[in-house]
Design goal:
404 residues; six-stranded mixed sheet; 15 strands; six-stranded antiparallel sheet; alpha/beta; 10 helices; 2 domains; Rossmann fold; Glutathione S-transferase Yfyf (Class Pi), Chain A, domain 2
Length: 404
């Protein structure tokens, strides 16, 4: 799949801009602050309905406007698809597919697939766990769009449950609230189990690709790995989990090892969550927040036996971030071989952050992709391995005379 045309109206710095693209490598060159990243951000937003730069939609609208439009023409084989996404300040965003009637923005998910590399990716290693959870969930939704509803359902139930727990902490908790909390526990257990099950499967798929990508980018002296740390496992382990009966009877030898959550079905994970909520209830009531669930889980990144966070050098941190994105790309390619679409690769101001060796290795890896979009302040930052079209970005648009 590749992007043939991108059109933006009142998006970020652009009142109107039209960009024609083609398969292979396209490098957008322009001074810092000129708007190159805005173009890449729009493509990424069309794919994920979120920005890699900001957490809300308001900054995406050109100052003083009430809506922005992203239009794109995507080509897959002999089939072309036109997507339109309207980002609104005062109401829900809307989309169109092939100029049909308006649909929910969420209905566009999965049609445009991208893997976006950016300087902000350093947060994948250096940032808090929410950055890594977001990485997993965005990839999850790209691969299986129905999981957007899974995330939404979980977030809705979590908000309601937290409100109830907060009320309890304020001294307003009654027997009626207790019964209501039991109901929310059931809803949250099911939604959490579906999200956890999907994340665990995804991490298993990412593992071999992460290891291989890191080896490709470095001298291979260290191995990269990712371990999913679930708060559910923590609670079950603290409470004895499955072997609780054996421990309570004093038969330590009969105690089974901790359960491998990856081997459990959604139904079994739902049961474990209900058990964990019961175990954690006193602490949750005291603190007024939900302490167990996918919203507090961690994806721990390892280099050798040490955590990448806090121990990796600057070069190793960049290599780990790039390896995570490459692993995403390879997982999407696995899907493309069974009927999915190969994603568009976007490298936004990445090469300026890398040493010469890592530049050349990354360029060699991505150069064979169906479509690669690269931004750079100066063309000298682009490795010679990335031959292809060059596009000059100027204030407010594209210099058509300098596209070659």
């Amino acid at each position: 799949m590749y992007l043939e045309k991108l059109s933006l109206t009142d998006f970020r710095s652009y009142a109107q801009v039209d960009l024609s693209l083609e398969p292979g490598v396209t490098v957008l060159v322009g001074s810092n602050g000129i708007g190159k990243t805005n173009l890449m951000e729009a493509i990424g937003y069309l794919a994920t309905l979120s920005s890699h730069r900001v957490s809300t939609d308001a900054p995406l609208l050109r100052f003083g406007t009430e809506r922005a439009m992203i239009r794109a023409k995507l080509v897959r084989g002999e089939q072309a698809t036109v997507l339109e996404l309207e980002i609104n300040a005062a109401r829900a965003n809307r989309g169109r597919i092939n100029r049909s009637n308006p649909v929910r923005a969420r209905d566009l998910l999965g049609i445009c697939q991208t893997v976006l590399f950016a300087p902000e990716d350093l947060a994948l290693v250096k940032g808090d766990p929410s950055s890594r959870r977001r990485f997993l969930d965005e990839l999850l939704v790209s691969l299986t769009p129905r999981h957007a509803a899974t995330r939404s359902d979980y977030d809705r139930v979590l908000k309601q449950r937290n409100a109830l727990l907060k009320s309890a902490r304020a001294g307003k908790f009654t027997a009626g609230h207790e019964a209501t909390l039991d109901v929310w526990d059931q809803h949250m257990a099911r939604a959490g189990a579906e999200l956890l099950h999907a994340r665990l499967e995804l991490v298993d798929r990412l593992q071999p690709h992460l290891k291989n990508a890191y080896a490709q980018l470095t001298d291979g002296s260290k191995q990269a790995a990712a371990v999913y740390r679930s708060t559910l496992q923590d609670i079950l382990d603290d409470d004895g989990g499955a072997p609780r009966t054996a421990i309570e009877t004093g038969d330590a030898a009969a105690a089974a090892p901790a359960e491998d959550l990856r081997l459990l079905s959604v139904e079994q994970l739902t049961e474990r969550y209900i058990q964990a909520f019961a175990t954690a209830r006193r602490k949750e009531l005291e603190r007024g927040i939900s302490l167990v669930g996918p919203h507090r889980d961690e994806l721990e990144l390892l280099l050798g036996s040490a955590p990448a966070k806090g121990y990796a050098s600057h070069g190793e941190t960049w290599s780990m971030c790039l390896s995570l994105r490459l692993a995403s790309y390879y997982v999407m390619l696995d899907d493309a071989r069974t009927g999915g679409s190969a994603p568009i690769l976007i490298l936004d101001d990445v090469f300026a952050e890398l040493d010469v060796q890592r530049r050349r290795k990354l360029a060699a890896i991505v150069s064979g992709a169906e479509q690669v979009l690269v931004t750079a302040a100066v063309e000298a930052d682009i490795p010679v391995e990335l031959t292809g079209r060059r596009v000059k970005v100027i204030p407010g648009g594209i210099d058509e005379q300098d596209c070659r």
